[in-house]
Structures are given as structure tokens and as C-alpha cells.
Design brief:
The structure is a homodimer. Chain A is mainly β and about 240 residues long. Chain A is built from three helices and 13 strands, in the order βββββββββαβααβββ.
Chain lengths: ~240, ~240
């Protein structure tokens, strides 16, 4: 009983292709879509009656972490990066066992070439995340409305107003049509939370920030008066 | 990335010494107490600020399971044992990866000989359960009051009235004083849910049922009119 070995039941395909920009909790960016593609061993039978549940728990592995060790104390973004709390009082991805837990919305179930694909939204999951387990969300057990959430009790406020340059606006519109998803609204949800590390927040200037979203390079700048300016959304494959 | 290895951060000491009788979800038996004793590597620093959270998520291993393999379809007790649902639409302990997830109430934090001991209640955890991770319960993320819970949306009803024989009553009183816990109330909470497998429920007769609770053998019978009669609570060590 000194260690336990787990194999992924499937993997995530997500709009988030790198860690920078991923919201710090699920549900904050409701428009973020992902698919969980189950391995062939896990047939349609394994998910019978799952469609009655609006939300699911995913237990997964923080797989992008191998290079950094866990520490007993972490600086949660919520406290502005100034205060330290214990790793077990945080949801930091750098943990003794790099296990993640996310509640996600189940949008649709698809069976394609005998493979089960769960379409999810509200995700905070990196592309290719290995998933170890799916459990149904049971409101009468899991929804504890009077729970006290310590230093992270309330939903973080929207931090920034998001504006688009003319160019970014047009690119967004074009790509949204091709992708079949409203990228303008998605980008707004992601950036208004300010993905920068806490110690940089509040700064503005000429520095251009970038993240990969789907197959696009999203680029933006921080302006005065808590404004964020989207510069461009370009296909990274061309 | 074909498999991942996790080591327990600590182990559970629970009033439930065997699987039979454990409630099917956390929170159903609010009086059930447990302690999570962390390994020495996980110092007081690891739980700094944890006391601000009323509830915790425990990720753990269903360790009493080795003998039985998982199946794609399971019969959840909720459906009376008649219908089958997919393993991922259930919280069955027999899963491809035997990972458990429980939300528990944090009652108190104790440091004893430099070991961290978390005092918990509302548990559905077997004694000696290996725990892989602790995460704080964040109400704004985890409490989704409008979630739809499929075939298990509502809290299961109390099924039985629990009565005590004179003898059981006296034993309860005596042991409660020694243990410093109200065993009468705890036993009532456990038995009114009817721990029998679904296919036996509704039956009554002379058969005596038993479970281990702390160091006691708890014995009871099923009577007519949805009544359960507690026969005795005897110290199993003497």
C-alpha cells in the first residue's frame, strides 16, 4: 500500500494549448469547451444514464508539471501573491500527488467510430490532460451552499475591461465562423480575469502578451484604466 | 504517460471498520467521525490557512477492493438494484481506477508529536483508507445548486425507524460515556438508511445482522412496519 498505479481512461482535447491563460478554476470561463475522448476499452455501456447529469467531476493528472517540484507553502493568486498558504489549503497544480479535480458541464455525448466523446464546457483543462476518472455531480451531496471557503470564499471579480482593435475584431469574426464558436465572447471571458501572475497585475505598457487558443495566437496589451486591448488572433499554423 | 504512480499522503482512522454499513455518500451520516493522519513529510506548513475552510475534498483509494474487478455496468442501490447504469454514471467503488472522492467537514486540526491530524465528520470512509490529496472546498466553484443529478438527484429518504432494546440502550449509554460520542444517535443515523443490499430490502425476520462500529459489534434485526431493532452493542475485544 505504499503506492498506487493509475492509467488514464481518456484524454482531453481543449481550447487551451498551453498553461498560460487557463482560468484558475473551472466554471469561471463558461464558454471554454473541451472534449474528453475515452479510450477504446471504455465503451458506450460505461456511460449509460450519464446524460441525466448536468455536471461531472473529472479526476485528472496535472501532466504539464514534471519540471517543478511541490512546496509546502504556495502563494495563491487570490491573495495577490503576497501571502503564503499550505499546499493542501490551495488548489495549486504543484501538489505531492499531481491530481486535479474539476467540475465541468456535460453538453453532449457523441459516439464516433465506437469511441465515446464527452463534450464539456466551463473547463480549466490543458490540452492532452490525462483523465483518470469521471463521476456524476450529485447536488444533494456535492453542493454545500453554506460551506465556508476561507480566503477564496467568493468568486474573483472581473478585473479588466476587454477591448478589441478593429483588426482583432475582424479576425475574430472570421475565425469564429470557421470554428463555429463565438471567439470574441470566449476571449473576453478569459482576459477579463487577467491571466498574468499576481506580481505583474496592475502594470500597463507596450509589452505584448500572447497565448495559444485553439490553433490561434492571441496577442494583447495592458492599457491604463484597467483596460486590456486585444491586438490580434492569427492562425498559428500558417 | 501510460500510467501514473501516487503515494498516500496519509491514512484514515474511521468508526467504520468494515465496508458493510458505510453510508453510500458522505454527509448522509453527519455524526460519523474520522481522522486523517498525515505522514511525517507533510508538516504543519502544508495545511497553513486550512482552518478557514469548513469542508474539504479528499481524493482517496478504495483499498478494500482488490478482489473484485470493475464492470462497465453497475446496479446502483438508488435504483433498487433492478436497473443498470454505466460505471461512470455512478459513484460505485468498483471503477477502472479505484479513486474515491468525498467531501467531508473539517472539525478541528490537531498537531501531535509533529504529526498533523485532521478531525473530520460526515465521512463515508473505511478505516485505513489511503488518502492521496486534500483540497479545500470552494463554494463558488463546487456548489452548483441548479445541477441536475440524474437518477440520484435527491437525498435518499430515511427508510426505517430505529428502535433499541432495553439492553442495547444501556450498552449504548455506557459505551458513549467511555468514548465521548453519542453512539445512540450515530447508530440511528446509520441504520435508518438500511445498509442491506437492495435485493434484501423490505424483508423482515429473525436473521441477525451485524457490523463493526469502532471496537464494537453492533447487532440488529428487521421487524415488520419498517422498523429496525438494535439488539446489542458489545465490545468486540473482550
Amino acid at each position: 500500500m505504499n503506492s498506487f498505479d493509475f492509467s488514464p481512461i481518456g484524454h482531453i482535447t481543449s481550447c487551451y494549448k498551453e498553461k498560460f491563460g487557463i482560468p484558475r478554476q473551472p466554471g469561471l470561463v463558461s464558454l471554454a469547451k473541451a472534449q474528453l475522448i475515452l479510450k477504446q476499452d471504455f465503451t458506450e455501456e460505461c456511460i449509460r444514464s450519464l446524460q441525466g447529469f448536468s455536471h461531472l467531476w473529472l479526476s485528472f493528472v496535472f501532466h504539464g508539471n514534471q519540471q517543478k517540484a511541490w512546496k509546502a507553502l504556495v502563494r495563491p493568486p487570490r491573495l495577490g501573491g503576497d501571502s503564503k498558504v499550505g499546499v493542501f489549503a490551495s488548489r495549486s497544480p504543484f501538489r505531492p500527488n499531481p491530481l486535479g479535480l474539476s467540475v465541468v458541464k456535460l453538453e453532449e455525448i457523441e459516439i464516433k467510430n465506437a469511441r465515446v466523446i464527452l463534450h464539456l464546457s466551463g473547463c480549466d483543462l490543458l490540452d492532452e490532460t490525462p483523465v483518470l476518472d469521471i463521476k456524476p455531480y450529485l447536488p444533494y451531496v456535492d453542493s454545500i451552499s453554506d460551506a465556508m471557503g476561507g480566503f477564496a470564499h467568493h468568486k474573483p471579480d472581473k478585473k479588466l475591461d476587454v477591448v478589441f482593435t478593429e483588426e482583432a475584431n475582424m479576425q475574430c469574426q472570421l475565425q469564429s465562423e470557421q470554428l463555429g464558436q463565438d471567439l470574441h465572447a470566449l476571449i473576453e471571458q478569459i482576459l477579463q480575469l487577467d491571466p498574468r501572475p499576481s506580481y505583474q497585475q496592475g502594470e500597463s505598457g507596450d509589452r505584448v502578451y500572447a497565448m495559444k487558443l485553439y490553433d490561434f495566437d492571441l496577442r494583447w496589451q495592458y492599457c491604463e484604466n484597467k483596460k486590456i486591448k486585444v491586438l490580434s488572433l492569427l492562425d498559428s499554423r500558417v
